[in-house]
Design brief:
Chain lengths: 728, 119
Amino acid sequence: MHCASCAVNIQRLLQRNPGVSTASVNYATEKASIVYDSAQTDPQQISAVIEKLGYKALITNPDELVDVRQQAKDREIVVLKNKFLLSALVSALLLWATLPLLMQTAPLPLKNSYLHFFLASLVQFWVGRDFYRSTWASLKNRTANMDTLITIGTTVAYLYSVLVIFLPQVISRLGVTPEPYFDTSVTIIALIILGKFLEARARGQTSQAIKKLIGLQPKTARVVRAGKEVDIPISEVVVGDQLRLRPGEKVPVDGVVLSGETSVDESLVTGESIPVYKHADDTVITGTLNTTGTILIRAQKIGRDTMLAQIIRLVEQAQASRAPIQKLVDVISSYFVPVVLMLSVTTFAVWYAFGPAPALLFALLNTVAVLIIACPCALGLATPTALVVGTGLAAQHGILVRDAQSLEIAHRVNHVIFDKTGTLTEGKPVVTDIISTSANNKSQATSHILSLAASLETGSEHPLAQAILQAAEKSAVTVSAVTHFKSLAGRGVEGKIHDTKYLLGAPQMFSSIPPQVSRLEKQGKTVVLVGTPTRVLGIIAIADTLRPSAKHAINLLHRQGIETSLVTGDNPRTASAIASQVGITRFFAQVLPADKEKTVRQLQAENKIVAMVGDGINDAPALAAADVGIAMASGTDVAMESAGITLVNKDLTTIPLALKLSRATLRTIKANLFWAFAYNIVLIPVAAGVLYPFTRILLSPILASAAMATSSVSVVANSLLLKRIRLT
Amino acid sequence: MSLDKIIILISSVGLIGFIYWFFLSRRPDDSPMVTTAAISVSGGYSPSVTKVPVGQPVTLTFTRTDPNPCLEELIIPDLKIKKDLPLNTPLALTLTLTRPGVYPFHCGMNMYHGKIIAV
């Protein structure tokens, strides 16, 4: 669009379009918002209409509207700031003119009570008009909120002052010196607005983490079409497109590398701190940063399906969920305001009937103090703000918490049970040893063993067979044709090669077992033997390599006082070997996948709060049975249904980090709730004047409003402190 | 005790009773069963109770006309839904509730409450 009239034209055209109820086109932001009936039209038809006029329409995903919303919020904050400045100025002038020691220095015109009335009315009805609007809207629904309390409180002080100025004789007749309290009503409003301003700003910071994640999505991509490279908006990229990525650019979609090599900094998306080397067939993740090389990728997942979009969605869902600890707050908040209203009426009646003279004044001021000091907001903000900061922080480290409940349970975990394959280990077995049992030329003999094994395993999908085939491919041994092939359920295979019958499989298949077997098994390796029915020819040992972070992660857990154990389908010897390599003392061996769940329950029966770490697919039942299931995400899929916590990166040290973070978040929530409750429980009675008979202490409404403004800000600030926690 | 004090005490008791009745008394739930509902968000949610059938897609359209920032977020904890409600922009949520029950929702500061009842 080149000018504002383009916007007007498009808008007019859109509004004439059947099915469109409202359309507004903004020239400055280059955005159109259209409300339409989905039965009559759809975004494609609408964009076709716009294109007919000669413009190009891009359909934005609602997820991308964040910018617009952010602008609206920023505007709100500016308005609050201006309102605060005005009311603070008026409040300062009024205090100058009315405070006992200062009033002598005030210029004469400032002492005019009609000027006070004018200024106070300005603040009461212009600055405070949102309080009135909100109160009126609430009352129509027979509900009440914090604004209701502030409206009633300030209106009482304001109306009393108006009465003092215009009908002082009425007040005198009641035995009270007619003195206005405009400074009170104005200062309360100024302080409450200040509180709202600070709170709005701080609340914006709580969700910074998710905003950062949203900001990682590049807006354009360089697509290679018909041999040419063109920059196009990200919304026009389709699955299968080939995209060129140069150094310093962010990956625009989830894809697979077609050519080139580079290293990619994934830290902002997965929390993985070391750049990852990528070459052909490797997966790249949206939002990660290409650092050194130029690569060509093919788009596999776009828009809502990318890992980044899934992460954002999961974090948002977690932030919307309710922590069990919140239940009590929910109940209290639904009664809070009406109860405070009743308390304020009681305060008035008791002071009026039984208080010292001037009873009316005491009754009024204390009633206003009660209304103003009550702060349901602090209670309402206590849990959600901490949750938003905690889950956001977690996401930055590659920890996705499914819901508040998982976070709340995670902080009590005292036992972590690890699945072996694919969790503690890479999950990709490799051949580590080939031993020939014949005395002849060793190197020739070992390649013969490998050749026999590879021939017998050709075509098998079993992970151990894959390891043998890969080793065979690596050492380029010949693979021969096999006849009379037979699979011996669960133990091995047999077949004829060049008319000789060979066996391959578990040592138990053979009558004599070579002595090396037990040594290899003690090292945690899986051993298969190759031979004829009568003689063992060779031994192949296969092992799964440990993840580099495994040992450190378990050490960190032990230091946090958390027990660990290992569960695996392997034999006890392998299990013991792996466990001792990483420092785990307790293990459960020969557990079938379906029985891992029972192992979890067994530990729970020992009164342990169990977190189970697994791959999220084979271990789903065990993950679901555990108090907290922790899944290691595979590929770019992170939405694990069975897991309470999903780890985006493969770094096992993220587990102690996740548990630490959950404890810190819960500590913050509890502290927030404690202060919010304590604040209201202690200060409402003080404002009502319960201390007066003993100590002559009363809370002025101005102090009450200062306390109220501080309370909710301090809750948000305390939640923000979570960001400073040392996680390493 | 003087007459004015007695009057104040009696009317205070009356006022407390009124506050209880106005805000806290249970109102008969006569809301009809619907599959689409327009919920206006202004000083609370109106209607605050929406009754919907289980297992059928239902569409609830929330429109916020109240600038109070408390209402700018809509949270349905049991459904893990947290949405921003931009001022004067309808937000349509299409849900299929598979289990009967009460699904409360509230604003960002847990100050205003409403509920969806699935039967």
